[in-house]
Amino acid sequence: EGKMAARLSHGENRLVSLPLSRIRVIMKSSPEVSSINQDALFLTAKATELFVQYLAAYSYKHGRGKEKNALTYSDLSHTAEECETFQFLAEILPKKILASKYLKMLEKEKREGEVGEEDEEEGEEEDEDKT
Q1: Rounded CA gap, 28 and 19, in Å?
Q2: I need a labelling partner for 40 at 20 to 30 A (CA). Which of 2, 22, 79, 98 fits?
Q3: Region annotation Disordered: residue ranges (predicted)?
Q4: Considering the chain, what percentage of its residues have pLDDT values greater than 70?
């Protein structure tokens, strides 16, 4: 075990804010992970913490929340959509919409999906006629 891990296990000088036990659970949820080195756990926790801080600071600086001296969900979702660095988060932080609007979108997708399936079936019948 490295010096970082030793420091953490003795409870001295807390170097990360995130709970290591939770991060260990998340890491172990991956089927490729069989064991987790204590230093790897610490570094993953610290990197995650720094990433979240960067995301929050960037979103606050470029968002509207600073007008109210607050970081808002809209600031975060806007950052995920507009900043190339954070676009991988766009599905995790979608734009905030009303539930009624979301239900209408789902209904529309369902209707369009049914139309698409009918078109596919017709295409298959045409293929059978040709053979």
Answers
A1: 15
A2: 79
A3: 108-131
A4: 77
